[in-house]
Amino acid sequence: MKILLLRFKNLNSLQGEWSIDFTRPEYVSDGIFAITGPTGSGKSTILDAICLALYGQTPRLGKITKSSNELMSRHTGECFAEVTFSTSAGTYCCHWSQHRSRRRPEGDLQAQKHEISDVATARPIHSKVQDTLQAIEELTGMDFDRFTRSMLLAQGGFAAFLQADPDRRAPVLEQITGTEIYSKISMKVHERQRAERMKLDLLQAESDAVRLLGDEELERLKADHAGNLEIEQKLASQAEEASVALRWLQEIDRLEKELAGLDIEALALDVEREAFRPEKVRLALAGNAAALEHLFTPLQMQRGELQRDLGELSARQSRRPAMEALLKETESRFETSDAELGREIESAAAARPIIARVRLLDARISEKLRACDIRKHELEALEQRHRQLESRRTETAAAIESTRVEVQQLRSWQDENRADSALVAGLSGIQHALEELHPALKREAVAAAGVEAARQALQKLQDDTAAFEPEAALSRSKLNGTRKVVDELRASLLLHLGGSSLKSLRIELDALKERRRMLGEIAALYVSGKELAPKIAGISAGIQALEARQADSDALLEQVRQLLAMAEREVVLQEERRMLAARVRSLEQERDRLTEGLPCPLCGSTDHPYAESATSLPDADDQQLQRAKQVQQEHAVALKNLEISVAGYGKEIEQKEQLRNELAEMRGKQVDRCLELLVAAGITVPARNAEPVVLERLGAVEGSIGELARRIETLETIEEQMNLAETELQQRLEASNACERRLELADQTLRSLKGDLLRLEQEHEATSSERNARRSSLIGMMEPYFAAGHDKSDPDALVESLAARGALWQKQVDRGRSLEQLLNTNEAGLKSLEAQKQTLEKDLVVLRNAVSAAADEIETDRTGRIHLFDAKDPDVEEQRLEGLVQKAREQLEEAGNARAQARNESAVFDRALQDLQRSIEGRREILDGLEKAFVRELLQKGFADEAAFIAARIPEMERDRMEQVSAGLDRRGIDLESRRSDRAGRLLEEVGRRLTTMPYDELAAQIDQLQDRLRNVRGDIGATIRQLDENERAAGERRQMAESVEAQRSECRGWDILHDLIGSADGKKFRNFAQGLTFDIMIAHANRQLVRMTERYVLVRDQSEPLELSVVDQWQAGEVRSTRNLSGGESFIVSLALALGLSQMSSRNVRVDSLFLDEGFGTLDEEALETALETLSGLQQTGKLIGIISHVPALKERIATRIRVAPLTGGRSTLEGPGVVGPLCSR
């Protein structure tokens, strides 16, 4: 950043508008300049102006606000500061201003204005205070604090860095170098390490919260589970055996009850058949009658039609007399209405002449009334005007008398103070002479000093301009070449755009891509729909197959249940046989005692077949029992497997149905989405036929996208080339403009310097003589206005007194002129009012006579009108007569319409009566034929007459019901006999099984007990299984928790290590480390500057404090000293070295090309001062401009380029130096 131009107005002692051009050759060639002047003259105000223009605040006063502005010069109403500066991004102008209300010194402060603009384009960038400050920081890379530490070292802040402790030095480094990121990283590491630790503690707590069963408790649960399984199997077997027996008893009871119910149903059926017998006979007669319905129905219809026609004929004949009477009445009404219309027309014709005469009279009366009203209004206006004239005449006469008295008094005062009249013309000369008296001596000194400076500047400027002209010509040539390239590229871009814009083409490309996405989604939905349809069909087929298998399994399950029941019965039978065989074997000793031929003591039989072969019976019985039990067990296992299989089929069917519903819902959503997208894509083809259209349009869109993308790519390439060329053109233009401005500025400066030189030489010759003549001339000009011997030692007081006397005289003269003019005006006005009054009174007499005559004429006309037409309105009367005529015409028209309608209705009635008589004759012939045919068929069906036929008829619905009842009775008889036979056979079969001898209630109670025990045992089994499963799940969760805890512990170890290295809650640890490195770099920069000023000291970093500074004293055998023990001069040199080092460092790559120093040189001895100045002058080789503010006289000898601040009277100061332009100096 480099300061190019400074402009300001009314800041502290520098009143008026000033500007300093730092691009002048003196500043560019020397690279260092001094701002000198006495203490308090306003040297620091120049630096305040720079800060104020950029940041709206100063190092000494802080921010300038609406309530406080100590920087504005006294007795002024406005101030501003403006800086033009350059950065790598361009050249900018920043302007700050504030003024008081109405720009008057006593006005209230108004809000400040702050804006920034681009110098090259003269375009404002920001005009709001906050936006401008943000833009300044972005363009310069420095906020106010950084600016005052790296570029403008103001009073009180020069040694701030050196004197700061480490904790305060760290934020300074952070602001200067942008290392605040390390503080953020350190705090983020601290927060992350704490968060990871909290996460580890939470995981550990969750892992500890998982509870597992102990080994003993786990073994006990497993043992209890095994025992409960054995008990469950035994109880289930017992309950199943008892349930089978109970179902056997229930089946026998059900069959017996069903047989009893069938017997009751048979008796009821016999009763119903007997009750239905008469209905059955009636049903047969109704069938014969139904066969004659096709003849009887048209017969009845013809009879009804004939009766209806006869009734209508009778009704019409009865209405004929009324019809004829109505016709006669309408004829009479028509004749009456015609006569009435003639009378109304004659009456209206007779009244028309009278109405016309009345209208003429009314019009004449209205016209006279309007004329009379106009004259009355004119009379009232004249009377009002007469009153106003009289009032104005009285007021004017009073004013004339008052003005005459005041004029006489004013003339008396003027006679007494006649001498002051000369001050009106001579006071300005006196004041001018007084104003030129004071600055005469100053102008002479300024002119003498400026002559030599202007001659040197003129010669140097001529040499520089001659050397710079070839460079300007080369810049213009490059600018023209670049402009030609830009024009060619712009023409090529317009040619490729073809009337469009790149933005519209990009929008079109985005629209095509969106359409491609939409069409692609539609195509994907079609593909997905094709894939879903066979999936849904396959799932439906699978469901049907599963349902079929489930149905087969259900049938097989029922068969297995029956086989199991048979096997159970077989086991019971074999058990009984085994018991019998055992009983036979238990009587073996008794059988040994049996003797062939002797009777058995138990049964009395003499035949003993088992006496010899009884030993073979038990073995055969046991094998058969085992086979029966094995078959029973196999059937039981098969039954259980089938039940599981059936349940599995049901579950699988439910899952497949759920999947099918989900797929169907998905397909429905896809269809809805597809239809929505088809509408959005503008495809009107039906959805079932739209896929080829979509694919075709998708291909077309792909082609369009490729073509448009290639076109946009070509245009972007051309645009990029054009942007680069325009950037180069802008740079060339800026360079050329800079050259032109430099040449123009040099030319202007040259002309100005020549003019200034001539003027200064003339002033130098003239001011000597002018100085002696000013006072005597002034005193001589004031002599006529004061008495002899009056004290003339204070010219200012004398001129002020004369000014007051001259102002009073001029005021009184002006007052006299005004009074005389007012008097003349009032006297002329009075005469005019008198003449107007006389004329107005004559007009009033004439107008009153005219109003009276007009009123008499109006009254005469009104009397004639009353005699002719009374008070009636002719328009209303005419409308009434016309209304009567119109009403008579309407009545006549209505009577004619009624007559025509009556005639028409009579003719229609006669024709209808004739048609009806012919219809009746035809119907009688048809009816006779139908009756003869019906009688023949009636006799054939066995009916004696039509009455018998009608009695036998039954409605069709009733007949159908009776037939259904008859058929139902027959079906119930057949079904009842079939069920009775089936239930009797099944009862005999069940009784033969003999599964139990226990009563039903005892067996049911036993089953309930077994089921209760079984439920309890199964509940214990379920609870045990849940405990074991929960323990297994908890064990798995504990294993996962352990893995998560170990992974988190590993994560924490990494963050703990990083936290130990750089983490801290306030970011201090890593920031101090990083800034320690930055501190070392800054010390290296500072030592490079320090070694140029003195070989005695070297700056080092304190090993115990990372940001603490020490110095190595080379003259004291390398002794390490604290910087706090340095003297004032030594502190200044070290501070200057640190300041120069800081100014070279920037994390934002901001080049600082201007440096201003505002203190400290007064503490240096002559040698140290020379060394410091040589160091600062050496910075010019890097392109820097160094400005030094000091009141040290030695600086005037060592620095050739100086801006001098010279105090004037009244607390004001003036500036002199190269590039300085202001109200009291030249360039």
Sheet/helix structural class: alpha+beta
CATH topology of one domain: Rossmann fold
* Main beta sheet strand tally, sense and closure: 7 strands, antiparallel
Distance between the termini: 25 Å
Radius of gyration: 67 Å
pLDDT under 50 segments (min length 5)? Answer: 614-620
Strand % is 5-15%
**Count of individual beta strands:** 18
In round numbers, the mean pLDDT is 79
In the CATH hierarchy, what is the superfamily of one domain? P-loop containing nucleotide triphosphate hydrolases
CATH class of one domain: Alpha Beta
Identify the strand order in the major beta sheet.
9-8-7-6-1-2-18
What does this molecule look like?
- Among the domains are: 214 residues, Rossmann fold (3-Layer(aba) Sandwich), CATH 3.40.50.300; 156 residues, Helix Hairpins (Orthogonal Bundle), CATH 1.10.287; 133 residues, Helix Hairpins (Orthogonal Bundle), CATH 1.10.287.
- With 1227 residues, the chain is an alpha+beta fold.
- The strands form four sheets. A seven-stranded antiparallel β-sheet has the order 9-8-7-6-1-2-18.
- 75% of the residues lie in helices and 8% in strands.
- The two termini are 25 Å apart.
- A hairpin with a 7-residue loop joins strand 11 and strand 12.
Jot down its keywords.
six-stranded mixed sheet; Helix Hairpins; alpha+beta
